[in-house]
Design goal:
Length: 419
């Protein structure tokens, strides 16, 4: 009904919608919104205008570069300069689709509320002709933009794969961590930059500007079984369990996602318990194969030896240590992240590892997260997980995982992978 009124009485409905959005923004402490209009032509080019409260608009320079993908233009960031809260009105001709982050203000209305984000994270806008599909995950949804490729991808296969991977997240605290996620799928079979790779999903990334978004680069020749066998989607969706963590502390965001990509796939039945622990321990071995001379934080800043494997798997080791300690106190990492979602995750705020660790401690971590951060982010060695693994009954010998069910914390080991 709102969309129909909008066609008949643009001014009155615009005022009503603005009041609704201002209430929404105030509830999230986002501040006064910036008003932006996007006018799109048949060639998928965007003209950006800054507007006042009465929607009197002045065209402004566009700040994002573009590249052509199939019949669409992909803007490599939000095509306006600021990272403020924004209400974006889209005017596009018939047949030209638009994919934006943020929250659509009303069904069938081309207005979006975009939350503020850290200046160090990008966004993505797609304009043109591409396949759109909405995937419902409980009370949340993914708005999928599937771009053209040669050969064309099967949208039903892509949808089934994304729904499966996103569904893994529900085992953490019963719900997907974001109300709405923009998903952009770029087919890459035959593209030179991916060479002869036959990985089903050679690359993925999470974007935060305006609201959560995930971009996947997919070999569109892959079968559904091959896509489901790839861990990338579970890893990228797991990033949404945390807010944006600054790049200098990326051990926390990448590490927690690496931990959960294996835990959640075990809970979903994509891995058995042995495989999940095998993959975790193989990762830990990659992370500690060097003798480090600098701290974890310094290694990330200096891009020191083996720094990528170190940041991913040191962070995963810290997540494991936190989860086991929490479970020994009758709670879990799942439970603490559930409280983080309830209080803070939708604000768009970015964090340092120190600030996020302290926030998690106030939500039931009881000092665990900050103690682990101080101990291991400043250490020149890989986190000490050997005692914890022994207590869990995880035996690592000659590159093979075995279990000792007589170990004192074996019940915690099984609980981690069972959810």
């Amino acid at each position: 009904m709102v969309a129909e009124e909008n066609r008949a009485d643009g001014g009155g409905t615009r005022a009503l919608m603005k009041r609704v959005v201002l209430m929404l923004l105030a509830a999230h402490s986002w501040g006064a919104p910036q008003m932006i209009r996007l006018d799109i032509d048949q060639a998928s080019r965007i003209a950006v205008s800054q507007c006042d409260e009465a929607m009197r608009c002045t065209e402004s320079p566009m700040s994002a570069s573009t590249r052509s993908v199939g019949r669409a233009l992909l803007y490599d960031d939000l095509p306006w300069a600021t990272r403020e809260t924004a209400i974006v009105e889209v005017n596009a001709p018939a047949g030209v689709a638009v994919s934006l982050p943020g929250t659509r203000i009303a069904p069938n209305a081309d207005r979006y509320a975009l939350m503020p984000s850290s200046r160090s994270v990008g966004g993505i806008v797609v304009v043109g002709r591409f396949v759109e599909r909405r995937i419902v995950i409980g009370d949340a949804h993914l708005d999928v933009a599937l771009l053209d490729g040669e050969p064309p991808a099967d949208i039903d296969v892509i949808e089934a794969w994304l729904a499966d991977a996103a569904g893994h997240l529900k085992s953490v605290y019963g719900a997907f961590p974001a109300a709405r996620v923009q998903v952009v799928v770029v087919p890459v079979a035959g593209r030179a930059e991916f060479g002869a790779s036959r990985e089903a999903v050679p690359f993925g990334r999470v974007l935060r500007a305006g609201g959560p978004a995930v971009q996947f680069f997919v070999d569109q020749r892959s079968t559904l079984a091959q896509l489901k066998d790839d861990w990338t989607a579970t890893h990228e969706f797991s990033h949404l369990l945390l807010p944006y963590v600054r790049r200098s502390d990326s051990w926390m965001s990448e590490g927690f996602a690496s931990y959960y990509q294996n835990v959640l796939r075990a809970r979903a039945g994509a891995y058995d318990e042995t495989t999940a622990w095998q993959k975790l321990l193989e990762g830990f071995e990659r992370g500690r194969r060097e003798q480090y001379e600098e701290s974890l934080t310094e290694s990330i800043r200096l891009r020191g030896p083996n720094f990528l494997m170190r940041l991913y798997w040191s962070g995963a080791a810290i997540a494991l240590l936190a989860d086991v300690e929490l479970r020994s106190r009758q709670t879990s990492l799942d439970a603490v992240l559930g409280r983080l979602n309830a209080c803070c995750l939708q604000s768009g705020q970015s964090y340092s590892a120190k600030a996020l660790s302290r926030q998690l401690d106030t939500l039931g971590g009881d000092g665990i997260f900050e103690a682990l951060r101080v101990r291991w982010a400043n250490a020149n060695s890989f986190p000490d997980i050997d005692t914890t693994l022994r207590d869990l009954g995880v035996v690592w010998r000659d590159g093979v995982v075995r279990f000792d069910d007589s170990a004192r914390a074996a019940v915690l080991r099984r609980a981690i992978m069972a959810g």
